[in-house]
Amino acid sequence: MARANDEAAALIQELADLLSITGGDAFKIRAYEKAARAVAGHPEDIAGMDLAALKRIPTVGEAIAKKLLDYTETGTIRQVEALRAEIPASVRTLTGVPGLGPKKALQLYRELGIASVDELAAALDEGRLHGVKGFGPKSEENIRHGIEVLRQKGDRVLVGTAAELAERVVEALAPLAERIAHAGSLRRMRETIGDVDVLAASDDPRPLMEAFTALPFVTEVVAGGDKKTSVRTFRGPDIDLRVVPPDSWGAALQYFTGSQAHNVRTREIAVRAGLKLSEYGLFTASGERLASATEEEVYGRLGLPWIPPTLREDTGEIEAALKGALPDVVTVEDITGDLHSHTDLTDGRASLEEMVEAAAARGLTYYAITDHAPDLAMHRMTDAKMLAQRERVRELQKDYPGLVLLHGTELNIGPDGSVDWDADFLAGFDVCVASIHSHFAQDPADTTRRLITACENPHVNVIGHPTARQIGRRAQVQADWDEVFRAAARTGTAMEVNCFPDRLDLPADLIRRALRLGVKFAVDTDAHSVEDMRNIRFGVGTAQRGWLTPDDVITTWPLPRLRDFLAKKTT
DNA sequence: GCCGTTTTCGGCCCGACTGTTTTCAGTCG
């Protein structure tokens, strides 16, 4: 179920958008935007909070607290309703067209009565923009194109897709740059990516820009300068290439990694110290450069430790850094095992032998094979097939002295919380993952009970991809997550962080909520092929965004500690 | 509208690029 926080944050954000269209004070607008982010990221549910509690949320003062109270009491915010009456909410959608901001959107509405993207397209066709002040022939063409981009590209791509594209750009341009790397939301490992940002260091940007625009998948150059070039790609995201002098590398990487909200905070810290921070470095008032070569140096001169990119969202990392309380987040190198994988016995594409060989090559110390159980009838699993696989796993173990093979299964959680086999058969597995694969639209109270029942099963060790979402295709199942997490913590059941780019499940915001309730996590690839094992970086990135340390993640633990965790369920 | 190791008022991040504006506003990140 959508938390009150998310709906309230959306309303505050809408208030900011509508005020920016009607020409409200820019600083007031920014205050609303900051508060919207803070409310969305606040771990406690705002439903039921009183004014004093609401004001304790950072960036929420008296005025916004009252608006939040208005929301929790009436389901809406009066000022938003009033502004909607003045400006149709659909005018907001005009600012979604690249190149159209609040000022021009308002102008189009006031002068031509345009209140939606469709109306804008029609006005263009009828030539009604001719002669409107500020809209020359070039603007018309850009808006026309912007509408097309908005309509066909949809919006964001999965992090895996963006990572592949970024790798191709970096590889192609590396010979022409002193340094080159991806930055932006991809470096922060957001689950979906709008634009791919690539940063290069060179004293001679021209050859880089020329090679960049000549890449085979580039279809159009949107903006081309000496320092920045933006391109559109064939059925992919836009790519920005920024080129900076080599001695600005650290400051530039810090800046272009973002997030924008994080950067605002770091620049505010600089201003308070009488300094100026830009992508070229940290400078004194007289222009003397204090730091710029590395990110560590830049953060250091601001009095901060280096902050992992995955935390840079202004959701508490600045405060934690100032207090010396940043989490020592889990890394790919910390991962010692994998508790969820498939073979061609069910829907995997590689044999048991190939998967085990790949797990050994990853340098894991333990690896669980967890093929699907009989309730997913399409995979035609039987008791006999599962026991035969177990025999084969035990035989294979002899060939892998450095890798402990675990035999497990991925159970199906039925609508009532039951799983495929009875306790006797389940007791034969080393580890059991249990996941939801159907009945996604159940009543939230039923889904909550369903997941709690699965946690209470003494043989279920891990809840696989707990929300069952598929990014861009299937919404999360609705449940009272805090209740589910309490049950997981109480019963010693780990929540999975599934590494598939279209799952990333649990999502980072739910990870943070679960963490506060004492839950442990299993970062698992759910690999169906050898290649899928590379997805571990996306799951670890998601775990980092959830502020997880190695201690929170059972798949970083040495085998004896893991075995204790698994054993505690049944005793 | 928020906030305070320059405090309760006066600030609030910084730069690149575009188009049409003859000196810069709007947009974007």
What labels describe this entry?
DNA polymerase, domain 1, RuvA_2-like, alpha/beta, 5-stranded mixed β-sheet, Beta Polymerase, domain 2, 571 residues, 17 strands, single chain, DNA-directed DNA polymerase, transferase, Beta Polymerase, domain 3, DNA-binding, 4 domains
Mind explaining what this structure looks like?
With 571 residues, the chain is of the alpha/beta class. The protein folds into 4 domains: 4-153, Orthogonal Bundle (DNA polymerase, domain 1), CATH 1.10.150; 157-244, Beta Polymerase, domain 2; 249-322, 2-Layer Sandwich (Beta Polymerase, domain 3), CATH 3.30.210; 332-568, TIM Barrel (Alpha-Beta Barrel), CATH 3.20.20.140. Helix 1 runs parallel beside helix 5, helix 13 packs across helix 15 (295-301) and helix 22 packs across helix 23 (536-545). It starts with a helix and ends with a helix. It binds one DNA strand of 29 nucleotides through residues 25-32, 34-35, 59-64, 98-104, 134, 136, 138-139, 142, 184, 195, 197, 223-225, 227-228, 230, 240, 242, 255-256, 258-260, 263-268, 270-272, 274, 276-280. Residues 337-415 form the Polymerase/histidinol phosphatase N-terminal domain.
